[in-house]
Amino acid sequence: MKNYQIREMSTEEIKKRILEEEKNLVDLRFQLELKNLTNTAKIRNTKKDIARMKTILKERELQEAKTSKESK
């Protein structure tokens, strides 16, 4: 998932997607241990997607804090 795709999503959508991806990551790890995972790059890509989404959420939180401070 690209950054521009994540930025188009609402905050609630991103939070929901993070939970889905974390569950997906657990499933991928189980598959890896059971030797059923053929493409091990999926784990790395999933972790990076989660990190991207969390980064954008943090940026939004900081932006909200900044605007609320300025309005006071």
Features:
72 residues, mainly alpha, structural constituent of ribosome, Ribosomal_protein_uL29, Ribosomal_uL29_CS
The overall pLDDT, averaged over residues, is 95
Task: Provide the gyration radius in Å.
Answer: 16 Å
Number of helices: 3
Helix content: over 70%
Helix and strand element order: HHH
Total number of strands: 0
Structural class, by secondary structure, is mainly alpha
Distance from first to last alpha carbon: 37 Å
Write a structural description.
The chain has 72 residues and is an all-alpha fold. 83% of the residues lie in helices and 0% in strands.
Question: How is the secondary structure organized here?
Answer:
Layout: H1 3-8, H2 11-33, H3 41-71
Compact description:
It is built from 3 helices and no strands. The chain is mostly helical. This is Large ribosomal subunit protein uL29.
